[in-house]
Amino acid sequence: MDNIHRVLLGYQIDPFSVMGIINRGTTNANRTILAKELANAFDIKVPAPTQFEGIPVLNN
Questions:
Q1: Whole-model pTM?
Q2: Secondary structure class of 49 (helix, strand, coil)
Q3: Total number of domains in the chain
């Protein structure tokens, strides 16, 4: 079992906090790469987004 599955099995995760932390200080190009990797990890078969207006970003 890889690390992402260990985390997901053991915790309830607030998706807005996770996405806000992941997207802090990140470029749109890197967000697209991250979206592709998350899709692969969860076996999601849709194209990764390239626009990210409206996503939570915790830049403080």
A1: 0.64
A2: coil
A3: 1
